[in-house]
Specification:
double-stranded DNA binding, PLD phosphodiesterase domain-containing protein, 8-stranded mixed sheet, single chain, 3'-tyrosyl-DNA phosphodiesterase activity, PLipase_D/transphosphatidylase, about 600 residues, single-stranded DNA binding
Length: about 600
Amino acid sequence: MATSDDDEDLKLALALSMQPSPAGASGKTVVDLTSDNEGEDEEDEDMKKAIALSMQGLAQVPNTTNTTTTQQQPSATAAIPSAELTHQATKSTMSAMPKSSPNTSFAIDRKTMEAERLARLQERKRKRKRTPSPYRPSKQQSKAPTPTMMADFTQSQSQVDPVLQYPRGVIKRTFATKFPRTDDITIDELLQAPTVNIAVISSFQWDAEWLSRKLSHTKVKQYWVMNARDAETQARWRQDLAECGIPNLRIHFPPMNTAVGNAHSKYMLLVGEKKLRLVISTANMEPEYWGEVKNDWQPGVLENSVFLIDLPRRADGLVGSVDELTRFGKGLVHFLEAHQLDPLVVKGMLKFDFSRTGHLAFVHSIGTASDTQIHPTGLPGLAKAVQDLRLDNVDYIELDYAASSLGALDQTFLQRIYHAAQGLPYNTSWKPAQENFRIYYPTKDSINSSIGGPDCAGVISLRKTHHDSPAFPLGCLRDYVSTRKGMLSHNKLLFARGRHMDGKPFAWVYVGSANISESAWGAQRMLKSGKLGKLTMKNWECGVIVPVSSERLEGLKLGEGEAPPMSVFESTIELPFQYPGELYNGRKPWLQNF
């Protein structure tokens, strides 16, 4: 067991202060990601920095890439055409939309930054030790949730503690402009910026300027986990950051296969004075993914899902050990270590109490070589998570998987998913019926009739070559139609429901970054010997399994051998798509021709 927080934080701060700073940035810009106590002696230094920075020009840095699909290398600016959010009014949208430095990877409004810094200094003078007030959500009118949305799982949340709003975790739908508020959440409600001291954020695509308006670099120490395969691109992005001189920001690139890998995981570690808010989502860090738009008259165009849980600091104030964590906590820490984050970031997680995560499972795909026997990942990791939650011993199961990207699917890969969802290893002797496995992916007609139209569908991907393969499971496809009319989806949601061998019903949902592809879940071939070959991973992915509560399941009236209906999930997640989905019936899916 470690010493007190103060001693430990001092050691960690000293360790970070010994690390080299980016060229062009002062030593103060190094982010101590484990100590979130701000000293009272920073005023003079901050004032000097504010004056110095105000005399500098904002460096304009060329962008390195320009990407519109999740299969290519992302840029740090918007991947969805921000000037063409609605295909019905493209020209008027372009003229009405403000320009936002499309060629700048880390272009931040320096004037605004310094104004915020000076305001911060004045606030410190008035009141040196201010306790953050409870975060107040958006003033937009909220539509009252239906009774099913207020069932046992959500009722167990923050009725007592206003700080720990979601102590057992919850799945929310992302907000969408112009649509009624239901069981959704805005990016501002999620971040709770006034209460955050440290933010570790992982995303596949970025709008750096937008995010910097959400989380001020003068107030929040930030660590961005980004996707760039080759060393040249990584070096260029680091240089961009150094030349901009942005304070309190570090960027990190996980190890990966430089030829085909992607850092596709989407998570946030939001550290405040009293809690850690852990977020796992399907959304990238760009405004469109969070339902925001450039013009007041426009509705949102793209929706996602997000899991979040609020974890309190340890009651003893100490830094714990990994051995004390739940399986969920151990899985998270292993993933962060495999990501090769600063060890101080990982150590900081051990200051928080994971005891209320025992009903959850953290599922990951580690996009580099790792010991899969000790730490199963990909589909074997999904199977292990199902076992750990005692959701295995399955007699009958139904799967409904909504995704924004489909890979080179065939019967073998669907078998692997079907087995893993039951906590089983892959077995070639048993094949699932296609009617028991439904894949929700939009038809071309649904894309064309959506609010954003084809111009906003670059992040929805199925290659024509994959679709045209004789092995592609066309019979599994269902048209993804959002319950928000005209909304496109970037969700990755796997719903499992069925009966155990003893006849008891079960249901759980996976929410995370993994689409339906071997890149996301791992490739594994059956050898001639009858044994499984080595698991080959490409992407970094992460997600969480949330089971439906036993109270909800016990209230069902089911026939013999009947699986729970999809409505069983209404106490756990607001289902974002219409079900049962319509068969394609000759219609074509939305295809990419690359």
